[in-house]
What does this fold into?
Amino acid sequence: MKKILSLLFILLVLSPLRAQNDAEQTLLQPFHSISSQDILSYAAELSSDKYRGRLSGSPEYLEAAKWVAGNLADWGIEPVGDDGTFFQWFPCPYTDVKTAGAVILYGKDEDGNVISKQYRFPDEYFPASNSDSGDVTAKVVYVGHGVSALELGYDDYKNIDVTGKIVLMDTDVPAGSKDEDYASWVPYCYHQYKLNNAVKHGAAGMLYINNLANPNTCFNEGFIYAHVGKEVAADLFFGTGRDHKTVKEEIARERKPCSLELNKTVTIKAETEHHPETRGCNVAGLVRGSDPTLKNEVIIVGGHLDGQGYLGEVLPGALDNGSGCADMLGAAKALAQSAVRPRRSILFLFIGGEECGLFGSQQYTAHPLFPAEKTVCYFNLDMVGTGSGLGVYGVKSFPVIERCFQEANDRYIHRPFRTSPSRAAGVGRPRSDGVIFQKAGYRSFSFGTFYQQGEERIPMFYHHPLDRINTLNPEIMEDVAKLMYLGLLDMANQDSLFPQDT
It folds into this structure.
């Protein structure tokens, strides 16, 4: 009898432990299937030359979107875009840049002979993503930030004639983001405003002191422009008795324009073809929840799929944002194939048009695929492919959600880990899809990575042809996907995520 009782006792103790161990193994099987090799292969595919930098609106972007949708379909993820497809469409004109064009400065030597200096792409200039095709040669005029804010008593074009000339212009505005009146200046921060204002004042071309690829601009027929670095600005100011850095600081300090003739002649050449009627798209795939009630609640995970395109050279966009999309694909595959089903639904949203002006996130928030009131939150991934630590930012204000990711890392991943409180969206120009969702009323968080103090950093090439897969850390990308898999699944299976609201 004692032996029978002892055996029963052992069975009573061990059976739950065995069941618990079996459940954990079921949970961890897809977790262990997430591999750095697979995730790096996704990033390599997206940043390959055949997609030509994934410029939203272009045929190559659509091919990249189809490749993502094909993977989602293969993994059994449900299409929830327009008309039962994976795609949510929106207008997205684009300009096909054929070559790097040219920026040439003309001057005179000591004997009065005309000499020229041709600048180097991409070190000293970038062709504009939305210039018209052609060339312009003209005198250059510096117009500060290119702002005509008459209600603020400020106009960079006052008392200076730019008709038929090339304007040299700084980004942003004289006010800083910490100034009390900054909100009044925000409408003048947008690149599109600055371009249109230069055209309105009769300029024939523009040199924008912002030396990187930037599709977040606009097309004006007949208007030729390029992006230049500080070296070009310094050359243009040479001989005027002023220097660019000092003049820019004076404008900010005095809040007064300091526009001036630079007495230099420049040629800008561009070879482009504008396509005004094209469309971009988001790619939307759903891992549908299993609970009869909770499946109607949706957790959105998003990252922008588009890149900066081709500017005489492909801009691969491996870190920005092939990395975030590759991480999402790794997590989506694991969740789709997991025997542990989420009770809530999880939407993977590969967003188009981010680089062009946040078009895809604006499309989604204006025309949501699931009711906003049933959307738990939005997680953003952008440039999540380097470093050694993991972060989930904004969740500290929501203890249940924070705990889901903290415990996943503590128990299974063991990376340095950070969270932060949720913060209100600033008054400035929105610069990420996450801000668009936040301004639309969604709880908005983000996944990120970081370097620890003193750690050797991989060089980062932002909006540059050298943003290639050799700058990525596949191991941290694997762990981002693993953190998403465990944390999102835990979130999806909680009875309540916001007990403080009840």
About this structure: The domain at 100-272 is CATH 3.50.30.30 (Glucose Oxidase; domain 1). The longest helix spans residues 2-33. The mean pLDDT is 95.
